[in-house]
Amino acid sequence: PQPPVLLTTDARPLVFHARDDVAAFETDTPQARKEGWERIQLFALFFQPGGVDIVPWGEALPQMATSRMKDLGWNGLFPFAWRPKPGP
Q1: Average pLDDT of the chain?
Q2: Measured CA angle at 39 (ends 38, 42), to 5 deg
Q3: Closest by alpha carbon to 41, among 9, 85, 77?
Q4: Does residue 42 contact residue 51 with C-beta atoms inside 8 Å?
């Protein structure tokens, strides 16, 4: 599924959630927006936290220094790690 038009006017949240970890750099592409939207749906809308592992604050806060996408919000904070998608 594609993200709603409302979310495409400012794609930062979609691109933010398309990243795999705090140090990842994701380019704003249709695929990144789609991946970000899928992850937002999985975690937020359906609230299935089994899709992520929580990174302890003692690790997440120092990792902010390695973020290459601080302009996406939260100064690069990425306090979770996405689990791989099951399937082919």
Answers
A1: 82
A2: 90
A3: 85
A4: yes
Judged by phi (left if over 0) then psi (alpha if -120 to 50, else beta), residue 22 lies in alpha
How far apart are the C-alpha atoms of 52 and 69, rounded to whole Å? Answer: 20
pLDDT of residue 28: 92
Distance of alpha carbon 57 from alpha carbon 32, whole angstroms = 26
Q: CB–CB of 13/33 below 8 Å?
A: no
Q: How far apart are CA 79 and CA 18, in angstroms?
A: 14
Q: How many CB atoms lie within 10 A of CB 71?
A: 10
Dist CA 30 CA 65 (whole Å): 27
Give the tens place of pLDDT for each residue, 26-47.
Answer: 899 999 999 998 888 777 656 6
64 in Cβ contact with 53 (< 8 Å): no
Rounded to whole angstroms, the Cα distance separating 3 from 35 reads 9
